Amino acid sequence: MRTFHHLSLEEREKIFAWKEKGLSLRKIAKQLKRNVGSVSRELKRHTKYGKVYLPCLAQRRADRWAAEQRYKAPLKEPLIFLYVREHLRDYHWSPETITGRLPIDHPGYSIHHETIYRYVYEKKQRRMKLWSNLVLHRKRRMKKNGRKVQAFGRLNEAIPIIQRPEIINNRKQPGHWETDNMEGKRSDTSSVSVTVERMTRVTRIRLLTNHTAATKTQVLVGQLKQEGALLRKSLTVDRGAENSNHKDITGITGIPVYACNSYHSWEKGTVENMIGRIRRYIPKGKSVEGVTQEKLYLIEEVLNNTPRKCLGYLTPNEYLERILSASYIP
Length: 330
What we know:
There is one protein chain. The protein is of the alpha/beta class and 330 residues long. It folds into 3 domains: 9-70; 78-133, no CATH class; 159-327, Ribonuclease H-like superfamily/Ribonuclease H (Nucleotidyltransferase, domain 5). The protein has helices at residues 9-21, 25-32, 36-45, 55-70, 78-89, 95-105, 113-121, 166-169, 213-226, 246-253, 269-278, 293-304, 316-327; strands at 159-160, 176-182, 191-197, 203-208, 234-237, 257-259. The chain has a 6-stranded mixed sheet, sandwiched between helices.
């Protein structure tokens, strides 16, 4: 059984007093009922660089060392620590995504997302700037707030979203898409079309050479034609001018187009959320003039292979594969 205990302030004062009287280390150790090596190390440790041994200073220093040694950093488990750091830095996953995916990748291991947030914002980790890998890159934690989204134009002849069937609203069937444009600077002539499948969250990102409805229609029709029949059922848009050719989309693809109410962008919240994720790679206010379709394909690949909480921490591609496998009839 372990009986060792650290020197007390009283013992240190005795060492100082007996050392001043000229007693040898062995006699001091015998008086304290300590090993002579303990006394020798105590004096060497606290008299480095020619300093005089002072009991109060030695005690203060020993207390500080003990506190630092007992400090248990969050994520101290090596596997969890490396997993969290890797997926924060390299994959830019959110703490909730890491929390949900960890038990899938490493059964038996778990961590709470709040623990990750505390680790990221802990003062001792500030120099690592892990907060820069979070979605909003905030140096300090803040409460969530909504944002105002400006609406454009009116599509009076479009099917209002209130007539959209419940099977679409409830995400019970694949093949229903939402689309919106993501802009860079106001002076940009180009923009980015983002289209998301509501059930699987599979994302398609395409470059638009201009802001016209004709270009938007051409890109959407081309993308929808590449999807299988199972994934071509409906499309939801806002009332922006770029969607004014919605009848052409329906005429070519045969799918109905539903329009959100004015100033109700949250009615197509799936694509709004996805645009927020894309902003991690193309920040708001940054020009998209130099962005290539190849880069957009890379971003699309990352997003479609990132675990999502709403999908049980499966990736959109994994979830889509499950649906396609279940729907396959040999």
